[in-house]
User: Which sequence fits this backbone?
């Protein structure tokens, strides 16, 4: 795949789907306080755990990828939330004082 697509995760997803891969897209839909990525940021994931883009960074993205793999299999979208007041957020490393909400859906 051409390097130019690495700047746009949605183009990467499109390319992966054209290759027959199963794909999920995670999108930051809401942020509060300090958040590493703005609303509208995307992370695309295929069934083999390949990914492109970013919705947060670090362990949060690992958790989003794990949920995305479940979404690829089930076809059921998920709304994920990570925040400093949430025990899960500390476990996955979102200790910046903000919260993010990420919508994960299978595409294609």
Assistant:
């Amino acid at each position: 795949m051409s390097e130019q697509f690495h700047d746009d995760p949605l183009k990467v997803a499109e390319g992966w789907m054209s290759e027959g891969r199963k794909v999920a897209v995670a999108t930051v839909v809401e942020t509060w306080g300090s958040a590493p990525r703005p609303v509208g940021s995307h992370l695309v994931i295929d069934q083999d755990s390949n990914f492109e883009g970013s919705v947060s960074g670090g362990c949060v993205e690992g958790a989003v990828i794990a949920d995305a793999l479940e979404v690829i299999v089930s076809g059921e979208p998920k709304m994920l939330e990570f925040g400093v007041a949430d025990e899960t957020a500390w476990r996955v490393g979102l200790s910046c004082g903000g919260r993010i909400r990420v919508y994960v859906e299978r595409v294609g």
Q: What stands out?
A: The chain has a mean pLDDT of 86.
